[in-house]
Structures are given as C-alpha cells and as structure tokens.
C-alpha cells in the first residue's frame, strides 16, 4: 500500500465504466450531463425508481438541456431490486444521487461488494471512516478510503461530497484559514429551489416567499464544515503500516474503542455520526496508539448557520461573517479588506496541476469588487459551475470580516463535486 | 413647557388636518389608506411630482386596493412648487413620503414654517435634534422635538420613523435588551421588492435572483438601531429648564460645540449625522454642562448588517444572531430558548394603554414555535402589518441566540410607523 495522493498522474486510459444511481433526479441528470463526454469515465448503467425501471433513459429525461446521445438508449435498472446487476455489471465505480433514505443500505451494500461509490447523498457523510471530500479543499482526506478497504476486504469504499451550501462555505473558510486562521463564522443562506430536487416545493409555498427551514441543513453545514476542515487521524507516513499491521492485530482480537477514548479528541462532542451509521453497520473504529481511524473534526472552529429557501431557480447565496485568528490590518489598524480579497483570489491547488482533473476549474474563487455582486442569476455558472463567487468583502463590526458568496448548488455543491472526487480517485490511483 | 409623554389622553377631537407629501408613491398611498378613515386625522392635501400636479388623486392611483372615497377628488399639489400652499393651507401636520433628495429641503422648510412633519424619508434621521421614533420601542424620544421647537421658534419640527428593516430588528433587540441585555448582533436581511418603491427594480434583475446590495441600507440599520436604543441627552426632569434658560443663553452668545466635546460621547465615532444635516442647516448643537442636546446613540451595542433584495413582493425577512449580556440558561447551563420566546411574547407597552393609538396593535411581537415560520408571504399582515413576527428561536454557537424575523416593510417599516408617530404626538399633546 502506497501513499495515494503522491502518485497523481493525469494520463488516464482506458475509460472507467460507471453506473449512476438515481439518474432521473435533478442531481442524477446533472451527473449524466457531466459524464456524457467525459475523457476518463463512461456511463454504462443508470438506476432509477421501480416506476421507471425498464424504460429508456431518454423517455424519462426532463431537463432544459437535451438528453446526451451516448446515454439516451440506456435501459434503466431498478436501483433497489437490480442491485446485483450493478455489482456484477463489470462496473469500476458508481455515482449515487439516491435519496438519503435509500442510499444508506444500497451504498453500503455496493461498497461491501467491492465497488467504489461516489455519493452525493448525506447518509454516510457522518460515518467515521467515510470522508467528505472537496478536491479544492481537502483532497488528502481521500486517503481515508484505505481504512474502509481494510475493513471491507472487498476493495470497495464510499466517498461523499458535501452538502450543497457547505461546498461554497467551506471553500471560503479554507482560504481564510490558510491565510489568517478562522476562529468562528456565522452564515445565512438563501438557497435555490433546485436544491430541493424535482418536483421540489409547491409553487404557492415558495413564490414571493422566504421559507426559513430546510430539514437538517443547518446541522449539515455546521458538522460537515468541521469534518472537511478536520484532519486525518494518523500522519500520512504512518498510515500504511498502521493499517496493514497494527489495526489488523486489533481487529483479530475484536478490540474496538469509540472516539471518546481518543487522545486527540478530548472535548465533549462525540465524533461525527448520524442515525445511518448504525443502521448501515458502518463507522467501525480502530484504535491505534489511542487514535481513531476517522477524520478528527475541527472543533476549534465555531460555526452557526441559518438557512432559508428563496424563490431562485439556481445558485445558493450566503451572507457570511467570520472572526479571524489573525485579521490583516492596514496602517490605521483597520481591517485590510484587500488582503482578504487577495487571499480568496490566490487560493489555489494543494496538488500540482489539479486543474488537469477534467471538471476542476483553473480558478477556485472568483472575487468581485463591485457593490452588488455576486448574484446567483448571473454568476453561478462561472467555471462551469465549479467556481465559488465571493464579493462585498468588508469589515464586520461584530466579528472581523463579512462577505457574500454564491455557489452553484447543482454542480460544485452536488454532481460536479461527486465527479471531481471520482476524477481525483482515478488520477491518484486510488481507483485502479 | 411640560413633560409631554406624561400627558397622554386618547380622547381626541376635533380631527387634525393633514397633508401627505409624495402621496402617489408606494409609501404615500399606504399613508393615505391608513389615514382614509382615521378617527383623529383627515387628509386634506396631497403633494406629488410636477408631472402629476393638478390631477385628481384617483386618476393617478395605482394600488391593488381602490382609492379611498374621501380622498379621490383631492387635486394634487406640486410638492416642490406649491410648498407655500402646504404652509398656508391651515394644516396641523404633514406626512412626508418624499424621496430623500427632495425631503432634505422641503421638510426643513415646512418645519421652519411651524408645521409638524412626520417623515418616512431618511434625510433627517441623522440630524442630531431629530428623533427616530418607534412608539413600540422609544416613545420617549419624541420629547426631542422640544429642542427643535426651541431653535425654530416656529413651533414646527420633524419626527422620523426608522428604515423599514430597522423597525423589525430594533423591536426584537429592545425586547432582548430589556430582558437580558444586548452585547452585539449580526443580521442578514432578505428584503421585499416593495421596499424599493414603484417601479422598483427591473424584472430581470430580481426575478430568480438575490441582489446583495441596497444603497445605504446597512449603515441605516446599524446607525438607526443605535440611535433608537440611545438615550435623551438630559433627564426628562431637567429638560424644560435647560431648554428654556441655559441653551438660550448659549445661543445668544453664538457658542456651539460639536459632539466630540461631549463628556458622554468619548469614543471615536462622531455623532450621528449625514450629508443632509449641513445642507439643511439642521443639526444645531447646544452644549449644556458638557452634554449635547440630541440623542446619544447606544454605541455599547455592536451591530453588523448584511442586506439582500430577494424576489418577494411584501415583507422583509431577517436571520438574526445576538450576543446577550446575561443569556438565560436552563438547569444544564444551555441557552433557555423558552425564556427568550417569553421575553419576545411579553414585550409590551412602556406607555399605558398605548394600543388605544389607532394603528398600534395589541401585540407587538407574535412568536412562532414551528420549524418553518415566520414567512413573509403568510405573516406580514399580522396586527394589520404593525406586529413583528419572530420564530425559530434557537441557540447560536457563535453568539448566543439566533432567530428569524418578519416585518411588514410597508406598514410598520414605513407608512404605519409615520402614522403611529403622529398619533403619539397627538395623544401626548405635543401636537396641539
């Protein structure tokens, strides 16, 4: 076992064969659109609900863009009943855009059968051995799949991308953390209707209205941000040896510890988990030298989110205030907002040439210096939906700095995030 | 001169004769609707732009509700050219819904001519001797008109109501301040299009979009909130004597000081003022025993606002986080959110029987305990638009408490606020 992320190679052939679960929903269709002419990946199977199983994909397609030629004749499988077809279908990987309730078991079963699962569902994001990866922010967390592989022994694993709002928010926080350190952040979201999937809310509930509630969303933003900004349990240098030998010995004795015994995890907060962890039988913990083999969330950063659904078709907008550890000051000891804009603008790859991953944009963050930008209607397609737009950087008289952020919830915050993770796994030879 | 607000009497007759400036705009029409069948006030004159002067009011009426019978035949005056008609028109008071640029001079001239001006314009809100009054929050600030009367010698004065967002925000903060003390607050607004007047933004700019900018709005929310939560410069007991004697002596010697010499105003922030103060010749300061004769803003409270325009017809929504001086805790030392809900619910009149003022509702704040309320579409008409809706009270992991607030921007935040101020002035015998 070698250090995966130091083996990056962008020359990939032949193509990887992929299945898409939940291919008829909003995220599923976006996945297919992103993969239709992908240089490294070919979609060969699409799963849908029982109602649509057996139909040709183009006959259930409902999108403002036409159904891609290369997938239009694929006959849909039942994502639940035809699970074995995915397992025995000679697939290299599966993308999951399933509803979270379905995703819990289906994704676990597919991973246990040896498949690499790249999931947009929230079901397994809280599992201690499942990483939430944003290649722009925490590519190294992909290494966590080694833990999963070790336990599953099948070679399969689950990699998740974050909640849609989190994708934009954590990108901004990571840029600030690298440059100035982040103490705490308050964000208010104004989220697009497309984030609620199809058909989404009833017209009279959302037209000319603001709905200050999206189930589970505030907790997702707060917890996922801390996990993404957290650290791997052991250093990269130690990981292979520990995985191969020490953990194996532990496993054979049946010894397990929970996160509360972790030396590096002494506060009162339990390790990230959700109801689905136990349901799915995932979340196994291996203690080595008092360390848990899962991401250690960054509980030093305090996050408070208030979420709202607004009558916008695409693009989530957020008003964010952040307290920095070392805020940049100008000669008058006022906040140096230019330094913060530069930190956003200069936020770049932690992996060389990462924009050779097909969906990764050359610029992670587009900075606006006008009074009234960014706006979701006009800026959510920058970088083909993979670039975060940030503007209105100004001093906050309660914390340190405030700004407005727009993230494409359907691409960076969903389908694009999942595809980026698969690309990273392919280029880093985690997916062979 | 007596203490005005101790002389409250709700038996009013005969009716007061009012003019409405800017009567054809959104706020102006709402003023006329509120005054059409008012028990204490009769609209006898309406001012409009030069374009509409000379027309009958019903011929320029554009509102989803019909033009009230009692005003439909009023022939419009030119708010600028016919200023003398308002001055000599036997009016007891004038409501101003003028654009701020026009309001600066017109309102000053009318006040200097002896008229009581109740203005929704922002032009004079920063003037040191002009109060921003919300009868629900700071009725006592109405006493500041005594300072204006003293200097003008005409008996005229200007009373403003707050910015639309501020009206809801400061009501919530006042309830919290009274119960627990407020250290600081961060608010993100999602403001309705009606707040931009008629015709407001272009459709393509706001449909399915969020615009994170409203000129001057963030500064208004921050500064007006501090002024409304500020205090009168001298105690009510001292005020009459100081006004009549000490200030007069000072005035005769031509001595003036600015706020920076004030003993009670030692921080770096200059006293509230805006460009219009000097333009209008208002904002005169009289120093008595080192005190300024204007509201002393509450600069102890730190406020940070982020404003957004959203595609909503009516009703401003705000996500608010507040740090309390003494947060209520339960037996587990967690935030006692029920105590905060009760503080909102119990927030009541500082003046006995104040709901005998015709537009004042019996309940200032309606508390919601459901997951997804309040919402602007369904809750901005509570209390005929004069009640603030608050819900989703929960702990904030960065400050102390967060909640969602809906305020009717057109009524409590504009026309209703101005009418309430006039009613308070009438009932307290400030307007005779």
UniProtKB/TrEMBL annotation, chains A, B:
Enzyme class, broadest EC rank: oxidoreductase
Keyword Oxidoreductase assigned: yes
Pfam family of the protein (one): Semialdhyde_dh
UniProt domain Semialdehyde dehydrogenase NAD-binding: residue ranges: 17-145
Protein's GO biological process: methionine biosynthetic process; threonine biosynthetic process
Superkingdom classification of source: Eukaryota
EC number annotated for this UniProt entry: 1.2.1.11
UniProt key word Oxidoreductase: yes
Molecular functions per Gene Ontology: aspartate-semialdehyde dehydrogenase activity; NAD binding; protein dimerization activity
Region (Disordered): 251-282
Biased composition, class Basic and acidic residues, residue ranges: 252-271
UniProtKB keywords: Oxidoreductase
Family: Belongs to the aspartate-semialdehyde dehydrogenase family.
Protein name: Aspartate-semialdehyde dehydrogenase
Native source organism of the sequence: Gregarina niphandrodes
């Amino acid at each position: 076992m070698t250090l995966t992320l130091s083996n990056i190679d962008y020359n990939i052939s032949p193509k990887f064969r992929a299945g898409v679960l939940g291919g008829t929903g909003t995220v599923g269709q976006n996945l297919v659109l992103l993969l239709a002419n992908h240089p490294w990946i070919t979609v060969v199977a699409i799963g849908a609900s029982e109602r649509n199983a057996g139909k040709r994909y183009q006959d259930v397609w409902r999108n403002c863009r036409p159904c891609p030629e290369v997938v239009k004749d694929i006959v849909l499988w039942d994502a639940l009943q035809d699970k074995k077809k995915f397992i025995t279908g000679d697939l290299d990987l599966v993308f999951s855009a399933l509803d979270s309730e379905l995703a819990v078991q289906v994704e676990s079963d597919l991973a246990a059968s040896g498949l690499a699962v790249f999931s947009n569902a929230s079901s397994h994001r809280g599992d201690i051995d499942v990483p939430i990866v944003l290649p722009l922010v925490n590519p190294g967390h992909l290494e966590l799949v080694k833990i999963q592989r070790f336990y599953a022994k099948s070679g399969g694993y689950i990699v998740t991308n974050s909640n849609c709002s989190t994708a934009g928010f954590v990108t901004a926080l990571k840029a600030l953390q690298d440059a100035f350190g982040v103490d705490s952040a308050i964000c208010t979201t104004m989220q697009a209707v497309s984030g609620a999937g199809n058909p989404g809310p009833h017209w009279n509930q959302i037209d000319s209205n603001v709905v200050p509630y999206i189930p589970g969303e505030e907790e997702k933003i707060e917890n996922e941000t801390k996990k993404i900004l957290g650290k791997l349990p052991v250093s990269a240098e130690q990981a292979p040896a520990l995985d191969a030998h020490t953990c194996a010995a532990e496993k054979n004795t049946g010894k397990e510890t929970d996160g509360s015994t972790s030396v590096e995890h002494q506060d009162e907060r339990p390790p990230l988990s959700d109801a689905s962890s136990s349901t799915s039988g995932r979340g196994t913990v291996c203690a080595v030298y008092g360390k848990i083999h899962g991401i250690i969330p960054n509980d030093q950063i305090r996050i408070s989110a208030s979420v709202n659904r607004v009558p916008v078709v695409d693009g989530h907008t957020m008003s964010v205030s952040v307290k920095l550890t070392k805020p940049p000051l100008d000669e008058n000891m006022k906040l140096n907002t230019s330094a913060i804009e530069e930190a956003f603008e200069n936020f770049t790859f932690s992996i060389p040439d990462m924009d050779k991953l097909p969906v990764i944009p050359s610029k992670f963050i587009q900075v606006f210096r006008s009074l009234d930008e960014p706006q979701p209607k006009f800026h959510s397609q920058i970088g083909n939906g993979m670039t975060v737009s940030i503007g209105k950087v100004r001093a906050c008289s309660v914390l340190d700095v405030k700004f407005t952020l727009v993230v494409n919830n359907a691409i960076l915050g969903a389908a694009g995030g999942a595809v980026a993770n698969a690309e990273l796994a392919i280029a880093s030879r985690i997916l062979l």
